[in-house]
Amino acid sequence: xxxxxxxxxxxxxxxxxxxxxxxxxxxxxxxxxxxxxxxxxxxxxxxxxxxxxxxxxxxxxxxxxxxxxxxxxxxxxxxxxxxxxxxxxxxxxxxxxxxxxxxxxxxxxxxxxxxxxxxxxxxxxxxxxxxxxxxxxxxxxxxxxxxxxxxxxxxxxxxxxxxxxxxxxxxxxxxxxxxxxxxxxxxxxxxxxxxxxxxxxxxxxxxxxxxxx
Length: 213
What we know:
By secondary structure, the chain is α+β, with helices and mostly antiparallel strands. The chain is 21% helix and 23% strand. It contains three helices and eight strands; from the N terminus they run ααβββββββαβ.
């Protein structure tokens, strides 16, 4: 009888000891409510849409080629909008005409696309000086020396119309009124510091003489 009691007591002590050791083992996979893994910089960039290849800061716009053309073979350009250095939206526009793309972009009267470089952006619109510029014209001013002037954003009312007026005389033409309204709303809300044109066309030495304001 005494031996049985001794064995039962011994087994109980062994079980208690094992349970204590199990409780002492750390649980490495447990995540507490206040503990979370920080995303790496690449994940954060993807999540916020922070695609800023030019590494500019603040609010600004860029104009770059899309590599595509409209139905009349006039090149299309991408207008990218940034807020606090982060990409938020893009619109499509034209600059120049199909047959003026290779002309000197710094010479007045060529109707070529506007020159590369930085431009200041007006905060409000004015009526267009000609019918093709429409009712709302948002002026931009080059921050570099060039022979071009009277440049800005407006709707291209002849976009993809076979009337000889498809495109612009050098301004940036939005393809529809809705996109121009989006652009004007962005400008009113965020007042971009500049527009950076990066067409990167080396025709007539434009790349070498591009403005960097």
